[in-house]
């Protein structure tokens, strides 16, 4: 036990966050607000027959993270097939670079970004030729 099975992204503006994650990663959302007792949208992140987990966007209950501060929590990383095209979608939908693309030599391309809600997340493209 102890395997990650669900995640929650805390957001200030639910519609803005749904648009960002929907446009960038193709996530679909289901309104689970009645169950949660607050603004809460289940995030379907991909096909159930492929590796990965689903999560949710939930209404932030306190102040957002301050810019240029150390990460306080978890950073989720999404697997992508084309790093550069996803980075362009991130930037075109209001995201910002937190740590630019870098090589994990012989393994992948990795980088970190800030979403429209001030949260840090990563993207990861497997590539054995990365260097």
TrEMBL record:
Name under which the protein is recorded: VOC family protein
Annotated source species: Metabacillus bambusae
InterPro entries, A to Z: Anthracycline_SecMetBiosynth (IPR052164), Glyas_Bleomycin-R_OHBP_Dase (IPR029068), Glyoxy/Ble-like_N (IPR053863), VOC_core (IPR037523)
Domain of life: Bacteria
Gene3D superfamilies: 2,3-Dihydroxybiphenyl 1,2-Dioxygenase, domain 1 (3.10.180.10)
PANTHER family assigned: GLYOXALASE-RELATED, VOC DOMAIN-CONTAINING PROTEIN
Database matches in SUPFAM superfamilies: Glyoxalase/Bleomycin resistance protein/Dihydroxybiphenyl dioxygenase
Residues of the VOC domain: 3-126
């Amino acid at each position: 036990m102890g395997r990650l099975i669900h995640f929650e992204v805390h957001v200030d503006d639910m519609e803005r966050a749904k648009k960002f994650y929907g446009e960038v990663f193709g996530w679909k959302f289901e309104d689970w607000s009645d169950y949660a007792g607050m603004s809460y949208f289940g995030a379907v992140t991909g096909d159930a027959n492929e590796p990965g987990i689903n999560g949710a966007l939930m209404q932030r209950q306190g102040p957002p993270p301050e810019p240029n501060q150390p990460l306080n929590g978890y950073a989720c990383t999404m697997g992508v097939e084309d790093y550069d095209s996803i980075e362009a979608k991130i930037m075109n939908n209001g995201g910002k670079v937190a740590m630019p693309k870098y090589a994990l030599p012989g393994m992948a391309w990795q980088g970190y970004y800030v979403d429209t809600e001030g949260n840090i997340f990563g993207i990861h493209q497997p590539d054995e030729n990365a260097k």
